[in-house]
Amino acid sequence: MMLSMSRYIPQANESVKSGKWDRKSFTGVEVYKKTLGVVGLGKIGSHVATIARAMGMRLLAFDPFLSMERAEQLGCQLVDLDILFQESDYITLHIPKTTETYHLIGAEAIAKMKPTARLINCARGGIIDEDALAEALKAGKIAGAAIDVYETEPLGESNLRSIGKEIVLTPHLGASTEEAQVNVAIDVAEQIRDVLLGLPARSAVNIPGLRPELLEKLRPYLQLAETLGNLVSQLAGGRVESFNVRLQGDLAMKESQPIVIAALKGLLSHALQERVNYVNASIERKSAASASRKLAMHR
What we know:
By secondary structure, the protein is an alpha/beta fold. The chain is 40% helix and 12% strand. The strands form two sheets. It has a seven-stranded parallel beta sheet, sandwiched between helices. Helix 9 (212-236) packs parallel to helix 10 (257-269) and helix 10 packs across helix 11 (281-287).
């Protein structure tokens, strides 16, 4: 989307197919040495950053949940959102649609961007105020946009349709490849297998998601925490009123909630007849008579 927008590829294609040879109308811009602002450095945002870095782009990123260390590994400079808006030549969104991110990109945010800035959204519709974007493109406040997702789908009557070569619109094609359809099925099957084996699910909605490399580092601690939780359950000899998990050293600087859940899983497995796993451990805690009334975590 970024390259198509930068070189007017869709519009040039239509022009040639209509019998024209209008090269001057489609003079584009390069991405080399330009600044890409990545909003959200999750699985997809991180991959986009890696590819952009290989194309010689400078990387800025905004992600309140990402460590400075991880950003540096990706070659990104973590900055405030306002700075990202002000300094980026391209801005790509990789965040979920929530009450906090709804219309995150509106007239106020666009006003902070360069007139040469270009905006890409292949994440979720509603993150961008489409009317504000259309107005900004018509007024030349930013140079371009490439949009794959919309607040209402299919896209109906929209001011975005009236924009010329400054915008590329596609019908939510982000995952529409033969490989992606196969891979997502494999990924779901593998995660179901992991949960049934009692392993942590990488993308469960009710436990923190972990990057594969971080999960691999935490794996020995997860087993240790579960074993200790089981030991506490057997030594307690009765009702457990509170359960404290204390992390020290380098471990305390990592994502620790999965370790707490592992310890809780071990604690409850001895006391309950139901199968306890990393997904339902917190739920079982609330309903079990022998479960803890509070879970405290200290770093």
